[in-house]
UniProtKB/TrEMBL annotation:
Keywords recorded for this protein, A-Z: ATP-binding, Cell cycle, Cell division, Cell shape, Cell wall biogenesis/degradation, Ligase, Magnesium, Nucleotide-binding, Peptidoglycan synthesis
Binding residues annotated for ATP, in chain numbering: G110, T111, H112, G113, K114, T115, T116
Alphabetized HAMAP family for the sequence: Mpl
Classification via NCBIfam families: mpl
Family of this protein: Belongs to the MurCDEF family. Mpl subfamily.
Pathway the protein acts in: Cell wall biogenesis; peptidoglycan recycling
The protein, known as: UDP-N-acetylmuramate--L-alanyl-gamma-D-glutamyl-meso-2,6-diaminoheptandioate ligase
Organism of provenance: Pseudomonas mandelii
Highest taxon in the source lineage: Bacteria
Catalysed reaction, written as an equation: UDP-N-acetyl-alpha-D-muramate + L-alanyl-gamma-D-glutamyl-meso-2,6-diaminopimelate + ATP = UDP-N-acetyl-alpha-D-muramoyl-L-alanyl-gamma-D-glutamyl-meso-2,6-diaminopimelate + ADP + phosphate + H(+)
UniProt domain Mur ligase central: residue ranges: 108-291
Name of the coding gene: mpl
Length: 449
């Protein structure tokens, strides 16, 4: 079957393309921006990519068009599909029908940590010899691909609350029908599609409604929004993590790089790993609970976590130049920025820490998170905010509210000059964006040489 994917370079759609190819389909696709790392992953799989949405790419007509959620009415390729009556489907629906049907699905949902936690869970099952399939919105370094079918019933999926397509406004995760579900946390996000937090809570409850009574729901005790979701009705056993939960930790190092895991008051072993931050400790607990549900004993899960390598672009160390360390991080929400900087601060002690932040997500561009930004950067020694041309609010006013030295720059050259003038051996520089940031990471490393 020839499947053509519109919006193929998104993390979800690109991963789906890999699975379709693995199932034996002839897969092609297009995107407005064909760029690495997804483009390189797809080209390596022999998937032909077209830049842009000229309807000519749909002639001769494919057997099926999968339409990504970034596509909207008025897009020339979308209009052509509708006018010609070509068969089309959303990505999550295709996945549900052709990959997830009949599998034991382990879904990881939440505002933060989905990619890292699903990577941890896939790795723990792999380490236990369970060869799971997975679809992850990033590239886990233990696997070096973002998706695979796997040859056992188990399938780990990053379960996103974003909508499915212009013709299906339900959250993607409603299609997945998991048996094991991690609900990591829940805050207001995606201001472009959700009016408020209760609207997101309702979508999470739609997910809870699909989990069988022989399944398992895992969530932390510390999230009031998730508590409200469960109180709307839950027909599935629940296990909780964190303070007062069945799964708890004793921190053995302040930065979260060593901790003892407790289940129902009994010590299960010590995780000693390369990760830092309380958020990753919480991700690990949820992972161990989910893995235990499919038969991985905690001690085996703990051994796997100690060999876990992080996901690309999640506090990934990308360069060390003249004693200055540069990291690439995907954080694009105040909570994620704060927890990431806190974890690094606890690891590096008093060493100088410069944060460079691009407010690029739809919610950021709409200004939904601007009130939380000044407080999110308190662990940095200084912050450089990048103001893209299309930002619809005053980033300078936000920078002025920061308690640490903050400047706004509207050019990559300006950012590089600032870092060059401030950084000295021993400085740590974290670049935070959910996009490519104009290749700043490489340009900065080169300039520091």
């Amino acid at each position: 079957m020839h499947i053509h994917i519109l919006g193929i370079c998104g993390t979800f759609m690109g991963s789906m393309a890999v699975l379709a190819k693995e199932l034996g389909h002839h897969v092609t696709g297009s995107d407005a921006n064909v760029y690495p790392p997804m483009s390189t992953q797809l080209e390596a799989q022999g998937i032909e990519l077209t830049q842009g949405y000229d309807p000519a790419q749909l002639d001769p007509a494919p057997d099926l068009v999968v339409i990504g959620n970034a596509m909207s009415r008025g897009n020339p390729a979308v209009e052509y599909v509708l006018n010609k009556g070509l068969p089309y489907v959303s990505g999550p629906q295709w996945l549900a029908d052709h990959v997830l049907q009949g599998r034991w699905v382990l879904a990881v949902a939440g505002t933060h940590g989905k990619t890292t936690t699903s990577s941890m869970l896939a790795w723990v099952l792999e380490h236990a010899g369970m060869s799971p399939g997975f679809l992850i919105g990033g590239v886990p370094q233990n696997f070096s691909v973002s998706a695979r079918l796997g040859d056992t019933p188990f399938f780990v999926i990053e379960a996103d609350e974003y909508d499915s397509a212009f013709f299906d406004k339900r959250s993607k995760f409603v299609h997945y029908r998991p048996r094991t579900a991690i609900l990591n946390n829940l805050e207001y996000d995606h201001a472009d599609i959700f009016p408020d937090l209760p609207a997101i809570e309702r979508q999470f409850h739609h997910l809870v409604r699909t989990i069988p009574s022989e399944g398992l729901v895992i969530h932390p005790t510390t999230e009031p929004a998730l508590q409200r979701v469960i109180e709307m009705g839950c027909w599935t056993p629940v296990q909780t993590t964190g303070a007062g939960g069945q799964w708890q930790v004793k921190l053995l190092s302040e930065d979260g790089s060593r901790f003892e895991v407790m289940f129902e008051g009994v010590a299960q072993g010590v995780v000693d790993w390369d990760m830092t931050g309380q958020h990753n400790v919480a991700n690990a607990l949820a992972t161990l609970a989910a893995a235990r549900h499919v038969g991985v004993v905690p001690s085996m899960g703990i051994a796997a976590l100690s060999a876990f390598k992080s996901v690309k672009r999640r506090m990934e160390k990308v360069a060390e130049v003249r004693g200055i360390t540069i990291y690439d991080d995907f954080a694009h929400h105040p909570t994620a920025i704060a927890t990431t900087l806190d974890g690094l601060r606890k690891r590096i002690g008093d060493a100088p820490l410069i944060a460079i932040i691009e407010p690029r997500s739809n919610s950021m561009k709409l200004g939904a998170h601007r009130d939380g930004l000044p407080e999110s950067v308190v662990d940095a020694d200084q912050v450089i905010w990048y103001a893209p041309a299309n930002l619809g609010w005053d980033l300078g006013a936000t920078a002025a509210l920061c308690t640490v030295p903050s400047i706004v720059s509207d050019s990559l050259e300006g950012i590089i000059e600032r870092v060059k003038s401030q950084a000295q051996p021993g400085t740590h520089v974290v670049i935070m964006s959910n996009g490519g940031f104009g290749g700043l990471h490489g340009k900065l490393a080169e300039a520091l040489q």
